[in-house]
């Protein structure tokens, strides 16, 4: 228990994760409003969207306009995702984008083919080019994602040894190219992790590379994301990707094998932290407002819970008597 | 970690928790079908409903017909809730009811008044009558619930000392009346618990009464129920109340302070256990079927996640390629 960090950082993924999966394209003004609302919550990093093929992801076609439209705060980083050099170059030339350079490794050929049209090994080779690209641009490499680090819906089990191959590749690459080891982000992309496996895999990286900084990108695909988050806290992990209102899944089409569900919900996890005395730097009331804004925008009930239940009222509320239950 | 139990028992609360909160009264045949489906999952105990004032809870008015209509399995206990002697007597005289006698303590006057029209102290006194009632009926007292053991939406904070007063009352009552100490059920009725507080309060009971059996009745009101569940597992707790599909909350009216949200979701928690090698005796595929049946019955998307995402497919699925994500 003593490993639980005193402070936790959340990287907000809602605008990207939530919108990339939607067929509906929301008005630009609403997307700008959501990003701006998130910018006022104390979150230090917000992933606004992806510079990807607009044919594959139509909702990201006007990503440059979205970035141009926001009112950036100086203390907030507005980041973006890209999957190739062209995407990176677009991001570099777009107003208000805070280039948070990252590497991306896959554990299964199936998902790598699906997302990048190349094998795991090819994607590794591409990372050498990405490193060169980042170094030429003078951008420090901040993080390295290991996608489907816990399991893959397309290919099945991802053994720990396969995940560790990706970790080792990142370490070797940093030595080879002489850049500081980026934060290793283990992504439970499609919700295969469980609390014990979180502990086992985080522990394995720690044991092999004690100097490595670690973060987790968690999804609540199967209802145990909050438990996985707590298990990671117990291992001392202090950085998480998450999505406001639990964005990233669609309640109208999320039946078995249709697609993955949303990230762990930022405000619910911030709530857990704050209740346990872990500081997050986030104004929870403002974050709940942003979640409710997202819900109005999406026009349907989103999966976040705190936004619906409200925060516990600690002061006596005898006169209010609004809430009860038979058991 | 070594305290994690090898086996966990789930007491299914969905039919009671899910239906008592609904304004809609579902056809009797559908409710019977749901209970019967749950009876085929391997769950050992299912709370079918409440013998309470039909004016206060119209959905439970025909509870005797519901019990009469089910097809009971011999290895399943079909239990009921009551709030007073009249309810207990109705339960006793109803077909198929497995009388699992319980005590009920409150930690706040506000909720006790709301649910029972009496103070915490009065409710304690009533428990003496309940004990007599159970003893006269020859029914062993199996459990003792401490309602809002972690906090109360009506009255606010519930200090640990107040919760422990209830525990002590139960212990004293068992000594006074000469019955074995029932399993003490700490109920997070309205979702105030967090993982550290689970550990603190379970630990406090354990320290004061090492011989006491403990169980938890958890709600996922604020999105951290799965983490609370995992924290309890780490403390060796091996019995939980839960609801299929996460029943107990209404997504159409669950805005702040309207009412509490559902229990932790049975199939999601069974999934967590099974993934971690903890046996539950539950056939997860059948339980998911029951959850989907509940969803069809309720006619809206319920909060359970596994039922929508499906179980991880461990075997290679290259030909299927149904599921992916950009990250």
* CATH architecture tag of chain A: Alpha-Beta Barrel
Number of domains of chain A: 1
Mind telling me the CATH superfamily name of chain A?
A: Aldolase class I
Structural shape of chain A: globular
Largest interchain contact: A-B, 87 and 89 residues
- The CATH class of chain A is identified as Alpha Beta
What structural category characterises the helix and strand content of chain A? alpha/beta
SSE order of chain A, as H and E? EHHEHEHEHHEHEHEHEHHH
In CATH, the topology of chain A is named: TIM Barrel
Stretches with pLDDT under 50, minimum 5 residues of chain A: 251-259, 317-327
Order of strands across the main sheet of chain A: 3-2-1-8-7-6-5-4
GO molecular function (chains A, B): hydroxymethylglutaryl-CoA lyase activity; metal ion binding
Domain Pyruvate carboxyltransferase (chains A, B): 8-288
Family (chains A, B): Belongs to the HMG-CoA lyase family.
Keywords (chains A, B): Lyase, Metal-binding
Keywords:
homodimer; 12 helices; 40% helix; lyase (chains A, B); TIM Barrel; PYR_CT (chains A, B); 8 strands; hydroxymethylglutaryl-CoA lyase activity (chains A, B); alpha/beta; Hydroxymethylglutaryl-CoA lyase (chains A, B); 8-stranded parallel sheet; 327 residues; disordered C terminus
């Amino acid at each position: 228990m003593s490993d639980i960090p005193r402070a936790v950082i959340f990287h907000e993924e809602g605008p990207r994760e939530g919108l990339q999966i939607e067929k509906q394209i929301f008005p630009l003004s609403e997307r700008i409003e959501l990003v701006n609302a998130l910018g006022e919550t104390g979150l230090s990093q917000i992933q606004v969207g992806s510079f990807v093929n607009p044919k594959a992801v139509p909702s990201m076609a006007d990503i440059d306009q979205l970035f141009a439209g926001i009112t950036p705060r100086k203390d907030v980083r507005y980041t973006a995702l890209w999957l190739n050099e062209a995407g990176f170059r677009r991001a570099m030339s777009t107003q208000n984008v805070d280039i948070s350079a990252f590497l991306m490794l896959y554990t299964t050929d199936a998902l790598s083919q699906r997302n990048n049209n190349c094998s795991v090994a090819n994607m590794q080779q591409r990372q050498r080019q990405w490193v060169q690209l980042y170094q030429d641009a003078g951008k420090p490499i901040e993080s390295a994602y290991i996608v489907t680090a816990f399991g893959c819906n397309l290919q099945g089990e991802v053994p720990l040894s396969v995940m560790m191959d990706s970790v080792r590749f990142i370490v070797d690459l940093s030595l080879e190219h002489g850049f500081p080891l980026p934060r290793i982000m283990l992504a439970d992309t499609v919700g295969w992790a469980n609390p014990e496996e979180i502990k086992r895999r985080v522990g394995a990286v720690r044991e092999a590379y004690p100097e490595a900084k670690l973060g987790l990108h968690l999804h609540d695909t199967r209802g145990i994301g909050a438990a996985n988050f707590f298990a990671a806290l117990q291992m001392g992990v202090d950085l998480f990707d998450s999505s406001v209102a639990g964005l990233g899944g669609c309640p109208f089409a999320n039946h078995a094998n249709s697609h993955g569900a949303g990230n762990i919900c930022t405000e619910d996890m911030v709530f857990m932290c704050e209740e346990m005395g872990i500081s997050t730097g986030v104004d929870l009331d403002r974050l709940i407002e942003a979640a409710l804004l997202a819900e109005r925008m999406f026009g349907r009930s989103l999966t976040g819970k705190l936004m619906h239940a409200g925060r516990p009222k600690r002061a006596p509320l005898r006169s209010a008597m609004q809430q009860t239950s038979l058991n």
